Automatic annotation (TrEMBL):
Biological processes, Gene Ontology terms: recombinational repair
Keywords for the protein's UniProt record, in alphabetical order: ATP-binding, DNA-binding, Helicase, Hydrolase, Nucleotide-binding
Pfam families: UvrD-helicase
Protein name listed in UniProt: UvrD-like helicase ATP-binding domain-containing protein
Length: 289
């Protein structure tokens, strides 16, 4: 590509209001990229311009781009911004959403591989607490001694680390874990009986399906030519593993994160995913905005 071609390419409207670092982040499309961005550095603009650029340059069709956020609000904003740049070309951005919404979509397509029917229900916190209370009652556990919310927080921590009940290794220093593990086992069995899952299961089941079914894994790791992740510093182990499985073929994963804010630490976010990006993804590039 000659310099003039490049200049011609840079005439795209959405590139005009970017500074040099932002422009570099939008135009770098070969291999893993970590964008380190503080508050107010225009990271949303970079992410949306990057998606637009990938599609405009015909590097991928809209349904071959996976863009993941933590909140529905962020996903909606990203969708609106990309649509306003691309107009009609934005049709088919079907894989832009939150970790949970995208995993739910994958799981509906491949529910039998997780022991569910595709019309499974996703239970909320109130339902979870009700279910745990019933289990405690039948197992003679006094919920005044061991609060259902606390039981669920241990279960959630295990799920964020990628453990089904039979994979949990009890932490001897935690006096409650050995009491909670049998409850976790019953809880998971009940969820399957109810054709239901909780939010933690959405990603856990997806990772399990992708690891155990190479044919399904192939479909998605081939399809997603570009993966973009917002707030990467807030990802936990299981989310990072899920991204890794999907990125393993094309390796075009772009993660944006701030190295000094982790507001999701209660979700088991592992800042080391962020700090060790270049070890997880070989030959990666880092751009600071």
């Amino acid at each position: 590509m000659t310099y003039n071609d490049k200049l011609e390419m840079l005439n795209f409207e959405y590139l005009k209001n970017l500074n040099e670092a932002q422009k570099e982040a939008v135009l770098y499309l070969d291999g893993p990229l970590l964008i380190v961005a503080g508050a107010g550095s225009g990271k949303t603009k970079v992410l949306t311009s990057r998606i637009a650029h990938i599609i405009k340059e015909k590097k991928a069709f809209p349904n071959q781009v996976l863009a993941v956020t933590f909140t529905n609000k962020a996903a909606k904003e990203m969708h609106n911004r990309v649509s306003s740049i691309l107009k009609k070309e934005a049709v088919g951005l079907s894989w832009l959403g939150t970790f949970h919404s995208i995993c739910a979509k994958l799981l509906r397509k491949h529910a039998p591989a997780a022991g569910l029917n595709s019309n499974f229900t996703i239970i909320d916190t109130d339902d979870q607490i009700r279910l745990i209370k019933n289990i405690c009652k039948s197992e003679n556990i006094d919920i005044k001694q061991l609060a259902p919310k606390y039981i669920l927080s241990i279960i959630d921590r295990w799920k964020n680390k990628g453990y089904y009940p039979d994979q949990v290794i009890i932490n001897k220093k935690d006096i409650y874990e050995k009491t909670v593990l049998p409850l976790y086992k019953i809880y998971q069995e009940k969820l399957l009986d109810l054709n239901a899952c909780d939010f933690g299961d959405l990603i856990l089941h997806c990772v399990n399906i992708l690891e155990k079914n190479l044919d399904i894994n192939k479909i998605y790791s081939n399809n997603f030519k570009y993966i973009l992740v917002d707030e990467y510093q807030d990802t936990n182990f299981i989310q990072s593993k899920w991204l890794n499985l999907l990125a393993k073929n094309h390796k075009n994963i772009c993660c944006v994160g701030d190295d000094d804010q982790s507001i999701y630490s209660w979700r088991g976010a592992e800042i080391k995913n962020f700090l060790e990006f270049d070890q997880i993804y070989k030959n990666s590039k880092v751009i600071r905005l």
